[in-house]
Design goal:
This protein is α+β, with helices and mostly antiparallel strands. The protein has 2 domains: 8-73, no CATH class; 87-228. Helices cover 39% and strands 28% of the residues. The chain is built from 7 helices and 7 strands; from the N terminus they run H-H-H-E-E-E-E-H-E-H-E-E-H-H. The protein has helices at residues 13-35, 44-67, 76-87, 150-160, 178-181, 210-216, 220-228, and strands at 91-99, 105-111, 115-129, 134-149, 168-169, 186-193, 198-203. Helix 1 runs antiparallel to helix 2 (44-67). The chain is globular. It starts with 12 loop residues before the first helix and ends with a helix.
């Protein structure tokens, strides 16, 4: 796939705005393609390249607008994603819960000024709640399974644009992950910040780069292992 970068300085303001809108459409198209990868015959590398290139084109066009003293008007979705990126240095804790059986795998990432400490938990199913038929659980922090440089974690999360994720991914009819689509899989990820704010994402289906996020902490094998036990 060939991408031709526009000569931004030669474009009018309206042409720059049109370029930005076009990039947003291509970004959304690429993400949708990657999230339904098992249902259609496409070249994965083309979709990934389109996603990356159009992000770059969009940012270049925005910078050119701002260099002319014109502020770009972000949409609500873009502001949400921008805020998520800006708050990453304030991360205090990430909670990751995923699996297809109860009890699900539970992991936390605790941040100090320099390091990220990954803990696993032992989950005890104590009893079942009669009205909901859901298990009453007790989570017991077990041990530190990995220590990672905080700066590395923040940079890797930044690359994934998690702020663009939907709050919930309820559908599983057409997953990009064929193995997980056969399981009663669900997940929840909660980000907690030093200012007390929290942001939670959850679902049955996954965002296109969900497993890239999990692998920042090298947890994917452990999560699948939890399911098999």
């Amino acid at each position: 796939m060939l991408f031709i970068e526009p000569k931004y300085k030669d474009l009018t303001v309206e042409q720059l705005k049109t370029t930005i809108r076009s990039c947003i459409r291509e970004i959304n198209k690429a993400k949708k393609t990657l999230e339904t990868i098992s249902c259609i015959l496409i070249n994965i590398e083309d979709a990934e390249a389109s996603l990356w290139v159009n992000r770059e084109f969009k940012e270049e066009a925005i910078r050119e607008l701002e260099s002319r003293g014109i502020a770009y008007e972000y949409t609500k979705k873009e502001l949400k994603a921008k805020e998520f990126q800006e708050k990453l240095p304030m991360l205090k804790k990430i909670t990751i819960e995923a699996g297809d059986e109860e009890p699900k795998g539970l992991y936390t990432v605790i941040f100090d000024n320099q390091k990220a400490y990954v803990y696993d938990y032992i989950i005890h199913c104590i009893d079942y709640d009669v009205p909901t038929n859901l298990p009453t659980r007790k989570a017991e922090k077990n041990k530190i399974i990995k220590v990672i440089d905080k700066e590395y974690v923040i940079k890797e999360i930044e690359k994934l644009y998690i702020g663009e994720w939907k709050n919930s991914y309820p559908n599983k009819s057409c997953s990009h992950n064929e193995e997980s689509s056969t399981k009663k899989w669900d997940w929840r990820i909660k980000f907690a910040y030093s200012d007390g704010m929290q942001k939670t994402f959850s679902g049955i289906d996954e965002p296109y780069n969900f497993y890239d996020f999990i692998e920042i902490f090298e947890l994917l094998d452990l999560i699948w292992q939890d399911d098999e036990e």
